[in-house]
C-alpha cells in the first residue's frame, strides 16, 4: 500500500525551531521517548539528526538525514534538510525526494530570506506546503500581518486552521477552527499539557479577530493545497510540544501519498509494478569506525524485496541489494521490503552516486537532480605531499556526496574545489582532518566561476586549443571552463556561439 506513506521535509530559516519540531514529531510518533534526545549527549543522543562533528560545534544542520516513524497506521518518512543558507544544493536534492513540506516560521520574524529561497525550490516541483507558525508563546508579530506576509511574499493562498488566543505573556492557547475548542496551557509553569477547553469565553475583540480570520481567508481546499497553490496555517510552540499533534494529523489527512516522479519517458507512477528509485544523497562515514558509505534511495514504484538485483544507470551493472537500511531516528534496521515513498539506505563502496536511477530493467532515467555552478572556488593546499592519493580519494568521496565539486585543471597540479557557500569550505577542511586524516589548507583560486561546456566535438576541440589554461575536468571527466569573471563567460559565449556554457549540469 502506498497510500499510507507520507514522505516530507521541514524547511525553515536557521533558529526558527526546525530541530526542536523534528524532535517533537519523533516524540509524538514514538521514535524517541524523552524530549531532548535529539540534542542529548552520549548514550542518550539516539535521535540526533545533527550528527557530524562540525554540526555539534556550530549547532546547525549541515547534512540531510532521514527519520521514519509510524502513527495510527501511517508511515511518516521525515527528511531533515540543512537550514543554513550555505547548503542550498544538498537541500535542493533532498527536496526532490519528498512529496510535501512543512514550512516553519518564527512568529516574531515571519518570512526570512532562507525560508523564501527554500520555498522557491519547493515551487519548482509544485511541492505542497503546510505552514507552522512557531513560538507563539513568545512575543510575536500580529497574526494578520504574518498571514498576509506569507500570502504576499510567496504568492500563496493562506488558510488558517486555528488562531492563537493572545501571544507572548498574554498567550492563553490556540483555538482549533475544526473543533471550535481551545488547547490551553495549564499549571504554574505554563507547560502546555494540551487540555482542550470547549467552554472558554473569548474576549470580544479577539472573537471579532477570529471571525475576520475565518471569513477573510480562503477555506481549506485539498486540491489547491496539493497543487501547491494554497497553504494551511497552524500555530504552536515546538519547544512546549504544543500544536504538534494537530500538525501530524494534518500531514496524515491532507499531505499527498507518493507522487509520480519526472523521468525521461514522462512521469513514473508509484503504481508501476517495476521497482524503480533514484539516489538523492550519498553519505560517507555515518559510522566513522566502519568507514561506511550509504546511498539514500527514494523508492518511486514497485515493492522492493531484500536481495533484489537493481541496475544503477551510472554503471549499467546490476547489483544485489542484500542489506538495505531503514532509518528509525538514529537507529537502523535491515529492510526486508520497501514501498513507493520509502527511503532506504544502500551500503556501497562508491558504486552509487547522486542522480543515479536504480531499476529492474534499466530502461528509465529520473530527471531533475542537477549540479549548480559553484559560487566559490579554492585551490587545495596539501600540507603533507605524501598524502596525495588520500587527498584524491577524499575529494572524490566528498564530491560524490555533493558537499563539494572538484575540478582537475588541464594545466597545473593543484586541484580546485567549488562550493555554493562558505560554510562548506569549513566542512571540507574539518572532514578531511577528522575522517581521512589529511591536513589541507585552502588558498585563493585565480577563477571566479565555472561553466560546463557542451557542443559539437570540433568546436570543443577548437576552443580547447586556445583556452587550455582555463580548462578543467570534473569528477566525471566532463570539460569545464574556469572563468576569471562573469564578464569572461559572456565574452567567450559571444566568441563561440556553437558552444553552450551551462551553469547547471543535470545528472
Automatic annotation (TrEMBL):
One of its GO terms (biological process) is regulation of translational termination. It comes from the Bacteria. InterPro entries: EF-G-like_DII, EFG_III/V, G_TR_CS, P-loop_NTPase, PrfC, RF3_C, RF3_dom_3_sf, RF3_GTP-bd. SUPFAM superfamilies: EF-G C-terminal domain-like, P-loop containing nucleoside triphosphate hydrolases, Translation proteins. It holds the Pfam family GTP_EFTU. GO terms for cellular component: cytosol. Residues 3-259 form the Tr-type G domain. Keywords: Cytoplasm, GTP-binding, Nucleotide-binding, Protein biosynthesis. GO terms for molecular function: GTP binding; GTPase activity; guanosine tetraphosphate binding; translation release factor activity, codon nonspecific; translation release factor activity, codon specific. GTP binds at residues 12-19, 80-84, 134-137. It is found in: Cytoplasm. CDD domains: RF3 (cd04169). Belongs to the TRAFAC class translation factor GTPase superfamily. Classic translation factor GTPase family. PrfC subfamily. NCBIfam families: prfC (TIGR00503), PRK00741.1 (NF001964), small_GTP (TIGR00231). Increases the formation of ribosomal termination complexes and stimulates activities of RF-1 and RF-2. It binds guanine nucleotides and has strong preference for UGA stop codons. It may interact directly with the ribosome. The stimulation of RF-1 and RF-2 is significantly reduced by GTP and GDP, but not by GMP. PANTHER family: PEPTIDE CHAIN RELEASE FACTOR RF3 (PTHR43556). This is Peptide chain release factor 3. The lineage of its organism: Bacteria, Pseudomonadati, Pseudomonadota, Alphaproteobacteria, Sphingomonadales.
